Amino acid sequence: MPHTAARLRPFATSIFATMSRLAVERGAVNLGQGFPDFDGPSWIKDAAKAAIDQHSNQYAPLPGLPVLRQRLAARYTRDTGLPCDADTQVCITCGCTEAIAAALLGLCNPGDEVAIVEPFFDSYRGCLALASATPVPIALRPVVHNGRIIDMALDEGELRAAMARKPRAILFNTPHNPTGKVFTPAELALIARLCVEHDVIAISDEVYERLVFGGARHISIASLPGMADRTMTLSSIGKTFSLTGWKVGWVIGSPSLVTAARAAHQQLTFSIATPLQHAAAEALRREDDAVAELLPLLAENRDRLAEGLRRLDVELFMPDGTYFIYARHEALSRRLGVTPAPGQSPDVACCMALIDRGIAAIPPTAFYVRPELGASMIRLAFCKRRETIDQGLAKLAQL
Ligand code: GLN
Questions:
Q1: How far is CA 71 from the centre of its chain?
Q2: In terms of residue numbers, what domain contains 378?
Q3: Ligand 1 atom with least separation from CA of 207
C-alpha cells in the first residue's frame, strides 16, 4: 500500500467487506456482514420514489432537511425527556458511520485519547486513526455460569482507569455490536457518573436502539443526570427500517457538540441525498409500524440460530438486541479440524474454514485493541430471511 497514508494502512480493508466478498465468490450463506437479505417496507421505498418526482433533487442544507431534523428532535425528546432544538441540535450524516467520523473528527485534536469499549464496531478505531487520536480500551468480558455465557460485562476497573485519564471522550455502542449486549441501567449510570466526574464527553452509538428483544430496554445515556450537555447521540434509519444501504444517520446533542460535528460533516460529505431525507422523515413518522413488523422476525431468528448452535455444542451469549450472536468457535473449529496457520488468529482460521464449507461469519479480533481478547469468538448475523438462517444451520450441521 505505498500510497496509503501510514495512519490508515492498518485499517485499509474492513473485515465486513472481505467476508462479504468471499461469501459472494464462494456462494456461501452470508451470516457475516450485518445487513438484511430483505428490503425495508415498501411504503418507505414509495416515499423515496415520490420524493424524487415531487421534491427538490438539489443539495439539502448542510445540517439536514428541516422536516427530518424536526422529526428527530421530537423523537429525541420523547425518548429522553430532554428538550431538543431542531435548528441547532441535529446534524444529518451519511449513515451512522459518518456520524462516528464527524463526532470524532469534530471533537478530537491530534494526540487526544478516546476511551472505547472493546469489542467495538470496526470504524471506531479507523476513525480515531483519521483523527490522529489514541484509543484507550475498556473490555467487555464474558461472564460464564454453568457453562453458559450469561453476560458480556464491562470491566469496571478498566473503565475507572480509562476515565481517570480524562480522555476527550468515551465512545461506545448500546445495543452492542458485535456482542448483542444491551447495557444495563447500572452500567450506564456508572459511565455517566465517571463522565461527569472527569469531564468526559460520551459518544453514544445507538443504531440498534429499536432492535431489543424480550424484557430488555434500551436507555440513551443522554437521559441520565448531568449527561444532556455532554452526550452526542448517534443513530441511523438503516437497522430500524432494514435500509442499511440508504445511509441516512444523525448526530444529536447540545448545540456546542453538534457545532463540532457539523464542522467535520461540512468537510466530509457536506450534505446527504435529499430525496432519501424526505423518505427518512416519512419512515420515522411511522416508525412503530416498521418496528412491529421487523421485531418478531428478528426475535424468532435469534432463537432459531441460538438453538441450532447450541445443538452443535456452541457456547454463546444470548443477545438482548441487535442483529448478532457472539459465540465461542471452539466446537465448530474442532469439528472442522482447524489449525491456525503461523501468525493466524484462531477466529480468522475458523471463519476461513467456515467459508470453505459455505458459511460466512465474522472473526472479531479486528474489533479489539487487544486481539487476544476476541480470538476464541465469532460473530453470526441473524438479520436474514428465515430460510437463510435454516440454510446456514443446515450447513453447520453437516460439518
Ligand atoms: N454494521 C455492519 C456490521 O456490523 C457493517 C457495516 C459496514 O460494513 N461498514 O456488520
A1: 22
A2: 6-40+289-398
A3: 1
